[in-house]
Amino acid sequence: MASRVPIWFLVVCLFASSLIGLRAEESESKESETKEFVLTLDHSNFSDIVSKQDFIVVEFYAPWCGHCKKLAPEYEKAASILSSHDPPIVLAKVDANEDVNRELASQFDVKGFPTIKILRNGGKSSQDYNGPRETEGIVEYLKKQSGPASVEIKTAEDASNLIVDNKIVVVGVFPKLSGEEYEKYTALSEKLRSDYDFGHTTDAKLLPRGESSVTGPLVRLFKPFDELVVDFKDFDIDALEKFVEEKSVPIVTVFDNDRSNHPFVIKFFNNQNAKAMLFLNFSGEGAEALRSKYHEAAEKFRAEGISFLVGDLDASQGAFQYFGLKEDQVPLLVIQTTDGQKYLKPNLEADHIESWVKEFKEGKVQPYKKSEPIPEQNNEPVKVVVADTLQEIVFDSGKNVLLEFYAPWCGHCKNLAPILDEVAVSYEKDPDVVIAKLDATANDIPSDPFEVKGYPTLYFKTASGKILSYDEDRTKEDIIAFIEKNRDKTDEDEKQESGKDEL
Ligand SMILES: *[C@@H]1O[C@H](CO)[C@@H](O)[C@H](O)[C@H]1NC(C)=O
Ligand SMILES: *[C@@H]1O[C@H](CO)[C@@H](O)[C@H](O)[C@H]1NC(C)=O
User: Fold this and answer.
1) I need a labelling partner for 414 at 20 to 30 A (CA). Which of 121, 315, 357, 362 fits?
2) Centre of ligand 1 from the C-alpha of residue 15, in Å
3) Which residues, listed in sequence order, are joined to residue 310 by a DSSP beta bridge?
4) What role does it play (predicted)?
5) Are 5 and 269 in contact (CB under 8 A)?
6) What band does 7 get if pLDDT is binned at 50, 70 and 90?
7) Which residues, at least 6 apart from 4, have a Cβ–Cβ distance to it below 8 Å?
């Protein structure tokens, strides 16, 4: 499943993980390196090696990617530790930046770096690695992943090892460890093992919470929020999956600097609902009242296709940039719908939360579109596009438009700028080709047709309206070659060409 987690949240996460990365590199430099435990694979030997492994972990990386560099020493140390696990667990890497490996990478749906996959059964099944990125965390996560998907709970100690704070843990209670329900539960745990911890037991008295006299079959979900424990008895596999997915989302997801909350924030963004986000200063005046009223509204509306998150101002700088919001607007409620529309209620009062959400539900609130002002002058070779001129310059112009989505702080965008300039200069005399750029942090862009997950992202719209994403090298020659290959002739050209024919 493609992740819909917005860039502004990733920036927060990655910032935190970059600190860990730094510490790791310092200690790494003190050790002397000898043998490499991480296997290097490429297109020539990938299938050969993978087909011989019941369980193998593959990192797709790019040499220029900073997060990959930070991960490398941690990953290598984990590989060395796991090489003496019984049975040994193999970690491998593929340079997905190499042309020869690109097909392999696309086969595994690699869209960003690093992407780590866990392959089972000689590569017949693959799942995303959703675990930590430092040595100890990687080792623990992979040990668990390589064992059975669901752990048997035989003692109270087993139970307390599995059912820990801040995690979703699913436990099946069965009168005996066989039969149809047990098998369905096992299949569920295999399917969802990368996202949740699973256990099973024949003795509900060992479990820390919930009715202890039950004998099952039933599924009990432990969670660190709301009702803390909830039981379920329908063993249809789809129903089970839906139960786990739904119950593992808090009524109100909390977004702050506490990293243990982040997995729930990721879940929040990956669901299909409209998303309500209340931003406020958690330690400011009136925060309690707001949060409590917000919780009430969430209980009322969450069954109607809206998920609720509350974000602390302190952790939400990225979100404010992303939405183009200002701190003097808090407490601020934003609702974002699946089609990318946003609805805004700045300087909200606790007593108005529920009524505003209701108005939104009834279609009485106007959507908000973030746009920079339309530039008065647009005379540079690379044209400036803002949200309010996107339609005119890109969609309705009848021209071939190469459009760059950039962020002001992005280094790769800065490197690309002079190259785009040169491309634009070389097309200056060609009225049918426009080279343009749009600051994607300051303007809302329709998610259809543009999928902007990183910066820079380049799209090409042909004169006839075809949209192509540009994934070639970012050199002047390659960009021009791409434009020449894909551009449409406009009516003007055709006239000129038929004119030529007649000569
Ligand atoms: C796979 O092939 C590459 C390129 O020939 C080589 O560098 C690498 O060591 C090989 N990997 C294994 C595990 O044999
Ligand atoms: C939040 O409120 C507290 C208490 O009034 C204040 O000290 C702090 O600076 C505020 N934080 C932000 C980010 O405005």
Assistant:
1) 315
2) 33
3) 254, 278
4) Participates in the folding of proteins containing disulfide bonds, may be involved in glycosylation, prolyl hydroxylation and triglyceride transfer.
5) yes
6) low
7) 269, 270
